[in-house]
Amino acid sequence: MSNCKLSVNINKIATLRNSRGGNNPDLVKVALDCERFGAQGITVHPRPDERHIRYQDVFDLKGQIDTEFNIEGNCQEQKFVDLVLANRPAQVTLVPDAQGQITSNHGWDTVKHQNYLQDIIATFKEAGIRVSIFVDPNVEMVEAAKTTGTDRIELYTESYATNYLHDKEKAIAPYIAAAEKAKALDIGLNAGHDLDLNNLKYFAENIPGLLEVSIGHALICDALYLGLENTIQRYLYQLK
Ligand SMILES: CC(=O)[C@@H](O)[C@H](O)COP(=O)(O)O
Ligand SMILES: NCC(=O)COP(=O)(O)O
């Protein structure tokens, strides 16, 4: 039995809600239903333009969620730092997004941004929030993550998901190396981005010490066909 938790990213529920301006679907209700259907965490990624998750959503969700609340985002935005400190989620995941990016597309350069990361991570840890930082599957970046003081790293899995379709052993090789380095350095390990029902099982089976995956886009797409409860159950099954 795997110890890996499934955190459902509900950004795309907010995208749908915002498209009409009302409150349908109700983001808080969906989050609570995800928990009821077995999700072990809820992830949101508020972006400065609030194109999906709004800052107010974070306050609304915080009081309601029973499982692990994970807020992802760009800590170079002071508004994001203030939001996280005001809500004190179980975990904050720091992602180096640029303004206007369509989605997250790279991890931290933990060598170049070492001093900055040390300071911001200490700020969140002093507030009692577990910190994870988004990194590419690169051993050098994992090594330098250790001295930032982060509790965990989240491996950016886009290249795994893309290359899985052509050569899954080659696709996962850099992730195994990164995970082994994280384990040796006693850094907790999360992963996410473009994980789906096809590629998740192989990833979870082959990555040592995987603690959590956060999955949004594919899971919400699957729910259109399979229903949310059935979809969450199927993702959980991949992690068994
Ligand atoms: C950090 C990460 O991997 C992202 O996948 C993210 O949380 C998704 O963000 P969007 O929903 O805005 O594409
Ligand atoms: N951290 C990754 C995440 O929350 C969801 O990414 P995706 O499944 O929407 O690509």
From TrEMBL:
The record marks 154 as: Transition state stabilizer. It comes from Pelobium manganitolerans. This is Pyridoxine 5'-phosphate synthase. NCBIfam families: pdxJ, PRK05265.1-3, PRK05265.1-4. Catalyzes the complicated ring closure reaction between the two acyclic compounds 1-deoxy-D-xylulose-5-phosphate (DXP) and 3-amino-2-oxopropyl phosphate (1-amino-acetone-3-phosphate or AAP) to form pyridoxine 5'-phosphate (PNP) and inorganic phosphate. Keywords: Cytoplasm, Pyridoxine biosynthesis, Transferase. It is an enzyme of class 2 (transferase). Pathway: Cofactor biosynthesis; pyridoxine 5'-phosphate biosynthesis; pyridoxine 5'-phosphate from D-erythrose 4-phosphate: step 5/5. Pfam families: PdxJ. Belongs to the PNP synthase family. GO terms for molecular function: pyridoxine 5'-phosphate synthase activity. The active site is at 45 (proton acceptor), 72 (proton acceptor), 193 (proton donor). The gene is pdxJ.
